[in-house]
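Catalogue entry: protein

Sequence with per-residue tokens
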Amino acid sequence: YMVGRELKQIDEVMAMRDVDSRLIAAIEKRSGEFKPEEVFVDTQGILTVLGSADGEVLTFAMPENDPAGLVVEVHEVEDRVAFLDHQFNEESYGEDVNHVYFMLISPDGKMLAKSGFTEIDGSFFSKHELPAPGEIHTLRLPYGDGRILAKYRGLYDGNVIMTAEHMRYFDRALENLLYALLATFILSLPVSFYSGRRIARRVVNGLDRVIAAAREIGAGNYSERVAHGAEGKEINDLADAFNAMITNTEKLLSELKAISNDMAHDLRTPITRLRGQAEMALYSSNGTNELACDVAEECENMLIMINTMLEIARAEYKLKESADEELDMTQLARDSANIFETISEDKSVEIKIDVPDNPVVLRVDKVDVQRILANLLDNAVKFTPPGGRVVVGLSDDKSSVTIRVSDTGPGIPEQDRERIFERFYRSDASRNVPGNGLGLSLVKAIVDARNGTVNILDNEGGGTVFTVTLPRMRTYG
């Protein structure tokens, strides 16, 4: 449009700020009102600045690094509009006439030249705000169900050149791409599901083997190990780490068991001998030797305490071999209450049995249950004042059996309940009552070893309720 010919040998388009300062100085010397439009380098290495000044179209061309070779040319074109109209049709030849659009618009919005489009009236493109000379506007124009992307550029003489493209082909290609992606996604779902299921199954199989081994070990079989499988290196590494951990644990538990047995032997033997000597001295003095009597009694207390500590350790570290059998819990509760009946009568404390009429069968170690009941009943009778009452209750459901021992004693303060199961802990209210502070610790250790629960509640009307819940099926934490 500006020079009246097509510029086909452009090698690089540049910004005015990148132009050689010597060329800028030459331009300013020739015309201070010069307004650059385009800057480019052709294939011959000639830097050209195209622009206008005082209504004239000028080009300043300078060979690379040669200011002396500067050439200034004034371009006078007889009919720029006719030339551009010819170029519009030539550029759109071979294209869908209603796909690519070219227009030359006057400052007042009149169409001066256009390509051969027929679908859209030219006013559609000229009714928008037109840019001033040197400005560029890019618009997305809605047309029917589609869009047209148009670029407007204000020329040196006030006219505006517009180039546009209908986006129907782009939108159609995008729609086809989305359909293709959707179809690929739908078709890949079964494959992904099947592959994911196989991978997950392999991983789960390896984890199941580790879990099964952990359950065996939790039941006391410390010789169990996890073998390598075909699930992959990660699962085999997990199995190796698990086996190494169990090997170390088995070694530590064996050492602990040996130490416990040695300690029991080393402590119980001299204390038993000392108690025997005290009993002989007491027998020789016809029961008048108070020192021998005190020594024999303290030796007995020490033996009880040592044995209880060992039982707690065995329960906590699961060193005790469980002798589970089918037992009637109602009969065990009655038998335990009968044992403490004499002691309770001496204190004027009533023991009441509240168990179901039908047998409540639980597979459990009989000695463990007897120790739980004995310690709970001993504490209940011990701390219940004369005239009070102790109730032994029993209930069950499909998953567990619950033992309840309640009393009408002074109760346990809230601040003591968190520590009541600690070894040797005795609250202020119990310091004047005989005992060593190990009974409830033994109860807690036995219950935890069977993955049960023990809780402390307030009794209605005063006192304390201990509840012990034992699962029918042994679970593994």
